[in-house]
Amino acid sequence: MPPIPGERRERKRSRSPLNYYRRNQNSNEGEFWDSFSWVPRMNFTPTVSNSALANTKQMRRLMITNVPFEIGISEDDLRKLITRFMAQNYLKDEMNSCPVVDLEINEGERSVAVELSSVEETCRICKLEKVELLKGNVSGIIRLGDSCYGNNVVTQAQTAAQAQAAAFAAINVLENKKTNFSVDSLKAGGSKSSTLLRVVNAVTGYMAGQLSKEEWGEYEEDLLEGFSQFGTVVHHWFVRKDEADICADPGNLFLEYESTGEAERAMAEMQGRIYDERTITLYYVPRELYYQNYKKGLTPPAIKK
What we know:
The chain is of the alpha+beta class and about 300 residues long. The protein has helices at about 15-25, 50-55, 75-90, 120-125, 155-180, 205-210, 215-230, 260-270, 285-295, and strands spanning about 30-35, 40, 60-65, 100-105, 110-115, 130-135, 135-145, 195-200, 235-240, 255, 275, 280, 280-285. The chain is elongated, with a radius of gyration of 22 Å.
């Protein structure tokens, strides 16, 4: 995606937003100063009226762009990713374990409109201007309030998402020219081809909690045999229940082939196939995203260019 305009000036450590919020987030539990007036903290109030929620809704909304839905990110995954990012970066209110109130996903525009639980949390995260929910994938932050995209929040979300998607498409065209990719390289998986595939629903999350060690081995052997007919599998990860992560649910199978062509053949032949009375879904996964987020200590295997 294009660089986000507007670089913030460097600040001394003592005046950084992070240190400011650490010092002051407990100073007034009932409300906070938003640089103009005191605003109630909605998630600290035992009972919040519908009118109070409605009055602050626009102030609590933002949009995240360049979300990699093509790897199979679900609404639940997004909630976990946003919550984890806010917790790790001291952006959510203390004792608030669920900062995400609502999500409106637009896969076509690769964006999601997010409603957070308080105005203060929204102000904090919007100061960042960009976030990295998954390592290796930078997303933009757009405040849905007073904006150059219009005054209506719905119009803002649609217009801003279209602008971001158009910019993303333009970058893809330039990348395709440089790497000899064409529009035809956008295969059934919904993203640019990769040597890595994510296989979903061969084993369900419920099954993953019930299978014995021997049954796991049988499924693993059976699936690898089926996918090996399309090429050499140089790496695989069959996600057990105790290994699960965001976008890596129990029962998911990650496969890396020796070449992109082999992965494309597997995608073409196996997408939507019935396996053990279940329809399996395949997604391309960028290998840098996979190894940065799930296999940090593993040296990626050599592949054919």
